[in-house]
Specification:
A 5-stranded antiparallel β-sheet has the order 1-2-3-5-4, covered by helices on one side. The protein contains 4 helices and 5 strands. It has 167 residues and is an alpha+beta fold. It has one domain: Heat Shock Protein 90. It is 34% helix and 22% strand. It starts with 27 loop residues before the first helix and ends with a strand. Helix 2 packs antiparallel against helix 3.
Amino acid sequence: MAGLEGIEQPGRHGGATTARWSPAVPDEEALHALELWGNPAECEVWFTSRPQSAARARRVAQMVVLHQWGLSENLTEDTVLLVSELVGNAVRHTGARNFGLRMARRRGWLRVEVRDPSRALPCRMPVGEWDVSGRGLFLVDKLADRWGVDLLARGKTTWFEMRVADR
């Protein structure tokens, strides 16, 4: 899957970190990602815990939120950023071999869940202006309307929800 690795998107306030990416047009890689890994709006999709999995999960989330559900680009960008943060935490901090991604939409809300086999709870760290890491849950807390962690018999689900305007 050349091309999926290392793609970062612009943040909510416009500053891009790496290559500029816009969710406005479904690209071949995003369509291929959805076909290859599955649709997390239909069932839980499992990825291996590798750094490139964050890019794959972002692409799948983009296709669901913008192109399947028809939601705004701003909401898509925020959702994709938060998916990346939760996936990054699952890959970096759990030691798990894989993680699951599930997405749901109900009247007025969208929900994203990342499940991993670790029962270690994520914690929101205090973030200073010049800190270069530790911002994941800080961003989730700022951009999502609500978020949390559900402990399971084997592992946990870290989730966030965002309000959406129903047409």
